[in-house]
Every structure is written in structure tokens, then in C-alpha cells.
Amino acid sequence: MSSNKTKWYEDSRFGMFIHWGLYSLIGVDEWIKSINHMSDEDYDRLVGKFTADQFDADEWAAAAKQAGMKYAVFTAKHHDGFCMYDSQLTDYKSTNSPAGRDFVREFLDAFRKAGIKVGLYYSLLDWHHPDYPHYGDINHPQRNNPAAKGVERNFQRYLDYMHGQIKELLTNYGQLDIMWFDFSYPKMAGETWQPQKIMDMIHQYQPQMLIDNRMEGSGANYGTILSAHPSNYAGDFASPEQMIPPKPIVNELGEPVPWEACITMNKHWGYNATDDQFKSTSLIIHTLVECVSKGGNLILNVGPTPLGTFSAPTKKLLAEIGEWMAVNGEIVYGCTTAELAKPEWGRYTQKGNTLYAHIQEESISAFPIAVPKEQIKQMTLLIDGIEVKATDYWALSAFKEYSYIFLHQDVTIGYPLPDPKDTVVRIE
Length: 428
Ligand code: H79
Known about the structure:
The chain has helices at residues 4-12, 22-26, 32-35, 40-44, 57-67, 103-113, 155-172, 195-205, 281-293, 312-328, 410-413; strands at residues 14-18, 71-77, 117-123, 178-182, 210-211, 259-264, 296-302, 346-351, 354-359, 367-369, 379-381, 387-388, 403-405, 423-427. The protein is α/β, with parallel strands linked by helices.
């Protein structure tokens, strides 16, 4: 449910996810170790190659800020178990690579300095830890890995390690705004993680911090956050992955539940050297407004290169989104589902009594709004503050229940207007 605790997060609406780790060096997918059944020996050779020569967290933060992103979540540890920070509980960490740097600390410092809220991603799965039960006993894609047969595992030892690492992150790095746990297989959800211990630490060290809902589920499986009686580790927001829910997410009582769609720019979370299937700027903008119009957030992923830079198409996409956000961000920040149903030509969002119309389609006609003309005090194009007249239109006079936004009708309003596509109109 919405609360004071989640207000900054719900007002922010737009964040940056960052997946960077050993897998980035292979340049295929962050699941590459699992997909290719790579041995530890093969995979761990990457540690010696991690130089991060061009990593500059200030550059990342500047790109996120310019794009209009208000928070960012960085992979402190992904499923491969490699720690991007100076954990005292393992040698498998970035400070032991040639880079010799604590990437988490650099990320946090730079993004905080840029005024961006910060979160850390922590994988519940761990393909490196000897006591993590990948193989056989639990439903896991690596269960048939022959390298692991006959090894004694003590799951409690893994849990102690995991809890210890969470404590390190909660206590050594200043205020964290989000911890993003990922994820739980159905057979390995909830009590498996001894979540009360985790919640106690959060309440003690970072009581303001938000967590996702994945100690109980995964992208497709929301856990008890939708229940009338959520568990106390159900999370503060739902986290649909690579999909936008068809309608606002509500709990069993019909109350809106904060949510965040996590979406990749291309087809992978981690850097992929050959994947140039980037979504268009317009599609991302439409998706962001779609999320807001359904009461949710968008966290857009970046997969930095092995050397630590954002790739050219990544930078271009962020820059173009930022250009649009600089003009039109008002339709995103602090906004939510509008009382009006979705119009044919785009989307509405709403903030208090102010309605925002995002015109996403071209039209030969005017754009109808289901608000009577008398109720509209003012309509303004965000692009340049031009006032637009809400009006009836003689050719559409059969449809008296609508007012109309004119964007093509130069004659009617007296001056040329921008291309209607991706135009935002503020309606007061
Ligand atoms: O961190 C990102 C993903 O690596 C992680 N969550 C986001 C935020 C994620 N974990 N699991 N999944 C996403 C979905 C699982 C997909 C899988 Fe597969 C199907 C794992 C194995 C089969 C996709 C396809 C990955 C490898 C092959």
C-alpha cells in the first residue's frame, strides 16, 4: 500500500537499473555462467581481467540525472556471487581484481552527489558459494551440473554468509534508499531465507529503506504483497519484470500497491557486445507514461561495458529521453492514474486536479478529451507554454460530451504547433 515511506519513490517514477559484473566481460548475458554450465574455474578467470579502466561513476550519475531518473539501483552482487564491493566475508570481490576498487562505494558517492536516490541489488541466488544448493535438491537451472555432484552443502552456512553480507551493506555504506533482492524460485521462497533476520537488520540500521517483493517471489510471482495480510517481508513494491501490467496493481482490498516495471534497453541486463536491438526513444517514453498512468514506476536498465562505460546506443537513448523529460517531465513526477479512462490517442496521468495528456498518435482530427469545456480553465502545451484552447469543433458537434485539443489546426489557434507525437498537454 502507498504510505509516507514510499512517497518519494512513487513521486520519482523513473529510475536507472545498472547491471555490471564479471559477466559484462564476456558480453553475452548476466546468466552466461548458468546458460553455458561454465565451471567456476573458467568463469573465475574473468576476475583477473576486470580492470574497469574507464569506470567513472560521476559520468554514470550525470547520464542518469540528465535522463530525468530520480533513483538508481546497482548490482552489489548478482547471481554469479561476485561482489562489486569490499566484502570482508569473501575474497570473491572487485577489490581483489586488477581494478582493486569498491564499485558500490563509488556508485553510491557519485549518485548521492548528483541528488539521485540510491539502491543496491543483492542476489539471493549465489552460484559461487559452496553452500548454495544449486544442484539437485532444489529446483534450479544448474541442478544437473556434474561438477557439483557429491558435495556436502550446509545451507545454513550460506544463509549466515548472506545475512552477514546484507549487514555489511546496511552498515558500511551510509543511507540506502532501496535494497533490491533477486529472487525466489517457488520452492525457495519466503521462510527459506530466514527473512525475519533480514527484516530485523533493516529495521535496526535502515528503517527508511524500501525493499522489493522478491524474498517471496520473482517477476511473475508477486508473493503476499497483494494479500489483505502481507507478510512483514512482503516488500514495499511489486516488481514485474520485462512486462507492463495490463492495469494498476491493487491488493485484495482493492488498494493500489506501489510497483516498478524493470525493463532492459535492449535484450539483456548485462552488457551484450552484439545486441543492438535497442528500444526506440519513443517506445521508452510511451512505456514510462504507461507505467505512471497505471500507478507504477519504470526502472530502465543499463548494462555498462567491460571497461565501465555506457555504450554509444545507451548514451544516445538516455540523452534523448532526457531531452523529452526536461520539457515534459511534469507528466511523470508525482503523477499517477487519472480518473479518466485511457483515450484512444495516448495516455492521461493526473496530479491532484491537474490532468496531463500525452499524445502518442498522429491524427487528422482534433484529440477528444472527455472533460466538458466549462470545467477546463486552461490547457497548456508543455513544449513551450503555449496555451491551447479547449473547444467544441463544428465538424464534431455531434459529440457534445467531448472537448477537443487541437494541435494541427493552425488556423483555429493562430500559430504553428509541434508535431503532435509525444506532445504533452497540461489540462487544468
Ligand atoms: O537481474 C536481472 C535478471 O538477471 C534477473 N532479474 C533481473 C532484474 C532474472 N533472474 N531470473 N530471471 C531474470 C528470469 C529467469 C530467466 C531464466 Fe533464463 C530462464 C533463467 C534460465 C532460464 C533467461 C533465459 C536467462 C537465461 C536464459
